Amino acid sequence: MIIERQKMSWWERLYLPAIIGGFKVSLRHFFRKKVTMQYPEQRWVVPPGYRGAPYLVRDQDGNTKCVSCQLCEFVCPPKAIKITPPGPAGPPADRPNAEKMPREFEINMLRCIFCGYCQEVCPEEAIFLMKDYSLIGASREEMIYNKEKLLALGGVHQDKIKKWQQKAQEARAQGQKP
User: Fold this and answer.
1) 102-135, pLDDT tens digit by residue?
2) Nearest residue to 129 (alpha-carbon basis) of 110, 146, 109
3) CATH: 3.40.50.1100, 2.60.40.420, 2.60.40.290, 3.30.70.3270. Which one for 54-158?
4) pTM of the complete model
5) Per-residue exposure over 112-137, b if at least 16 CB sit within 10 Å of its own CB, e if not
6) 129 DSSP β-pair partners
């Protein structure tokens, strides 16, 4: 199929309509209210549904909620999460009735795409996405968050169910060691 082009008129060959149209757009934006934000003083209001950086949380007793199931590591698309499970003897658990706790837990924030899969897949609700958007670091090493830093930034999550306390009470009721 051959399509023949129409000849341009002398007015169209001058490109004046395009230049005038560009000036119209420039003048329209010139008189509008400015939308530039002065960043450190003014902060962006985070919309609902915003997915920020993932952090680990503690329960109301101050214990780590992560049980090293490694589901978040497997589901992470860019492989930004690295969990080192406990060895044969197991790490010193800060929660006495937990079966296993992660020896090391790292999230590389330079690789993280803030998809939220880690929060969705976590059976213990140990990972939450925070509403921050300014992750800064002077080096690559500073952007790899270890377990202590993730727990410090995540804070305490008030758990309504108190699953581990219920399991300890059930174990005591059956005469087992919690």
Assistant:
1) 889 999 999 999 999 999 999 988 999 988 888 8
2) 109
3) 3.30.70.3270
4) 0.68
5) bebbebbbeebebebbbbbeeeeeee
6) 54
